[in-house]
Design a protein that fits this description.
Helix content: 25-40%
Number of domains: 2
Number of strands: 11
Strand content: 35-45%
Radius of gyration: 19 Å
Distance between the termini: 11 Å
Structural class: alpha+beta
Length: 169
C-alpha cells in the first residue's frame, strides 16, 4: 500500500483546443503524473499535488483533492467500487477519507481465521505485500475492534499517514 494524491479537474470543454495542448504539456513538464482516471490525475507526492492544483486553479479547472491508497497486490470485494476505482492502467485506488486499514498482529491461528470470516462481511479490499493489510469503511472501525476482542486477536489500525506499514517513496 502506498499513499498518493488525486487531483480532480473540471471539464475542459470550455477551453479552446489551441490552449489545451500547451496547458497539458506544461502540466506533464512540471508534475510526474503516475496514473489517471479520466479527469483525475494521480501523483505520488504532496508537493506535486500542490503544483498541479495551482496549475489547474490558474485555468479555473481545479475541482477536488483526494488522498488515495494505491493497492499493489489487491483482493477486491464487491463494495470496492463504492470506495475506490480501477484505472485503465489496471491500478486500484481507495479514497483515504472514506476508508481505514489495519493489520492483524497476533492471535491464535484458528481465532484469526474465525475473526477474518466474521470481518469478511465488512471488507472493501485487502492488499497483500509484506503483510496483509485489510481495508474497511471508517464507520466500521468499532465493529471490527469488537470482533478482535471477541476472538482475542490484536489489530493495528493505520491511524496516521506516518504509520510504519505505510510504504511511501
Amino acid at each position: 500500500m502506498k499513499l498518493c494524491y488525486g487531483i480532480e479537474m473540471k471539464s475542459v470543454e470550455h477551453l479552446p483546443l489551441n490552449e489545451l495542448e500547451p496547458f497539458f504539456q506544461a502540466i506533464y513538464e512540471k508534475v510526474n503524473i503516475i496514473d489517471d482516471d479520466q479527469e483525475l490525475f494521480i501523483v505520488r507526492t504532496s508537493s506535486e499535488a500542490e503544483t498541479l492544483m495551482e496549475l489547474l486553479k490558474e485555468k479555473s479547472l481545479f475541482e477536488a483533492f483526494h488522498t488515495l491508497y494505491s493497492l499493489e497486490v489487491p483482493k477486491l470485494e464487491n463494495t470496492f467500487i463504492d470506495y475506490g476505482f480501477k484505472t485503465a492502467n489496471d491500478n486500484h485506488y481507495l479514497y483515504e477519507e472514506m476508508t481505514t486499514s489495519f493489520v492483524i498482529h497476533h492471535g491464535q491461528e484458528d481465532q484469526i481465521k474465525m475473526a477474518l470470516y466474521q470481518i469478511e462481511e465488512d471488507l472493501i479490499a485487502a492488499d497483500f505485500i509484506e503483510e496483509e493489510i485489510y481495508f474497511i469503511d471508517k464507520a466500521s472501525k468499532e465493529l471490527i475492534e469488537g470482533y478482535a476482542r471477541a476472538y482475542e486477536i490484536s489489530l493495528k489500525f493505520n491511524e496516521s499517514r506516518l504509520d510504519k506499514f505505510q510504504k511511501q517513496e
